[in-house]
Amino acid sequence: MLHITPHIQIDESELSERFTRSPGPGGQNVNKVETAVQLRFDAAGSRALTEDVRQRLRRLAGRRIDSAGVITIEAHRFRTRERNREDARERLTQLIRQASHRPKTRIGTRPTRASKERRLDSKRRTSAKKRGRQSRPSEE
User: Fold this and answer.
1) Would the keyword Hydrolase turn up in this protein's UniProt record (predicted)?
2) Residue 76 sits in which domain range?
3) Fewer beta carbons under 10 A from the terminal one: N or C of the chain?
């Protein structure tokens, strides 16, 4: 069981892992051992996620999610399979945790009278500055 938040737990059966040869560090060992992890999670079919979390997750995942709603996270930062596996799971956890927070709705406000006056005063000063740069035809 992968614990995301107190309300969201993902069952191990919903995760699939594939190990490949890593392009990262490892010396001569990199050519022999499959240490990179490709973690796949079907967000669209998961029972652990609510619909609004699923929609935010689709937006946050970007190119890591395919059209079927499967998130793929590749981890090859470390030399060992176990560390890469932990890294991939932690990145998935962070992504889902971030999607579980409902964004605060913006409350529209009006500019104050003083801020309007400051803006207009600034525009007048800029206009006067630019007017002063203009060349005037000489009166001869």
Assistant:
1) yes
2) 2-100
3) C
